[in-house]
Design goal:
By secondary structure, this protein is of the alpha/beta class. 40% of the residues lie in helices and 17% in strands. The chain has a domain of 236 residues: NAD(P)-binding Rossmann-like Domain (Rossmann fold, 3-Layer(aba) Sandwich). Bound molecules: nicotinamide-adenine-dinucleotide.
Length: 342
């Protein structure tokens, strides 16, 4: 997308995070001013977050505040001072498995923190609030591809439940205060500057160090792995398309994807599920070494397969993710070698 965005000031939470770093770069490339917010939580190596942040703070148009979004007064003050037109809310306690270990971290960042963002948008009107949801909201759904028009009311982890709660909380604020909100269900995002807690990062590290990898449920597990550049492109396009309220929507028609309020949700996925064994083979090719595999059963909270229906996304912004895993993983491994000097 080459044309200039329709907005000039974006407040972006989770700016030191993986997706936030990439989206901020894309916005700065387009001349948008970005106020980044992050609390630099040590859930994974803070040095990687700091390295992302150092890149961003070196650029014109970027400013940063270290704020925990569950601190509403600090969030409110940042909104008052910066007056964002668009808010892109990516800060969250991420990770499915960690939500079994430390559930309260999810309540603090994903529920209380999300409420701070909604309240700040209520008291400082914005043109559009875009926020990260997750493919994990589909939980126990077995019908594929996963569609926004199907229900998503059977989460199988607390992480997923908090993300689904965000969609519902956003709906109430869109309805009550006419805040246009768009929720984005990302499907397993990977790429350069990625997250050390995710499998592709751990596999690459272990393979390059000659150590074994733990492979859960290789025979049946498949994921709609989505390259971060595709996620970034979709977010930037959608940010300029706030949903409109539509009073003609019939509240009796049970379509979970539509509303009379200015509220939408979109899948952002590659629409190409890949089995875990093929994914590992692509990492092996990119590393030029074979993995030593330790096979383990599926983990509690994991779903066996994810697969995005992206018809709504394509209809809305004329774009759908399409980077093949071989291309995306080669970029990731190349970044990894360069960043860690291997
Ligand atoms: N990466 C994926 O595969 C994926 C898939 C689905 C959904 N998501 C969602 O997308 C968003 C971005 O994910 P990511 O992969 O970049 O994760 P990330 O962990 O790299 O980034 C999230 C950032 O939010 C910050 N943060 C966490 N709690 C905070 C708080 N209370 N206050 C302020 N900052 C806080 C963290 O320090 C981190 O830098 C998250 O909402 C995540 O749940 C990611």
């Amino acid at each position: 997308m080459d044309q200039a965005p329709s907005f000039e000031r974006v407040l972006l939470t989770g700016a030191a995070g993986f997706v936030g770093f990439h989206v901020t770069q894309a916005l700065l490339d387009k001349g948008v001013q970005v106020l980044g917010i992050d609390n630099l939580t040590p859930y994974y190596d803070p040095a990687l977050k700091q390295a992302r942040l150092d890149r961003l703070t070196a650029r014109n148009g970027f400013s940063f505040e270290q704020i925990d979004i569950s601190d509403y007064d600090a969030v409110q003050a940042a909104f008052v001072a910066f007056r964002p037109q668009v808010v892109i809310h990516l800060a969250a306690q991420a990770g499915v498995r960690y939500s079994l270990e430390n559930p309260r971290a999810y309540a603090a960042s994903n529920l209380d923190g999300f409420l701070s963002i909604l309240e700040a948008c209520r008291h400082n009107p914005v043109d559009h609030l875009v926020y990260a949801s997750s493919s994990s909201v589909y939980g126990a759904n077995a019908k594929v591809p996963f569609s926004e028009h199907d229900g998503a009311d059977h989460p199988v982890s607390l992480y997923a439940a908090t993300k689904r709660a965000n969609e519902l909380m956003a709906h109430s604020y869109s309805h009550l205060y006419a805040i246009p909100t768009t929720g984005l269900r990302f499907f397993t995002v990977y790429g350069p500057w990625g997250r050390p807690d995710m499998a592709y990062f751990k596999f690459t590290k272990a393979i390059l160090e000659g150590r074994s990898i733990d492979v859960y449920d290789e025979a049946t597990m498949s994921r709609d792995f989505t390259y971060v550049d595709d996620i970034r492109e979709a977010i930037v396009r959608l940010a300029g398309k706030p949903p409109q309220a539509n009073p003609s929507v019939d509240g009796r028609a049970a379509d979970p994807a539509t509303s009379s309020a200015a509220w939408r949700i979109y899948n952002i996925g590659n629409h190409t599920p890949v089995r875990l064994d093929r994914f590992i083979a692509a990492i092996e090719d990119a590393c030029g070494r074979k993995a030593i595999k330790r096979h383990l059963p599926a983990q509690p909270g994991d779903v066996p397969a994810t697969y995005a229906d992206v018809a709504d996304l394509t209809a809305s912004v004329d774009f759908q993710p399409s980077t093949p895993i071989e291309t995306g993983l080669a970029s990731f491994v190349s970044w990894y070698r360069d960043f860690y000097r291997i």
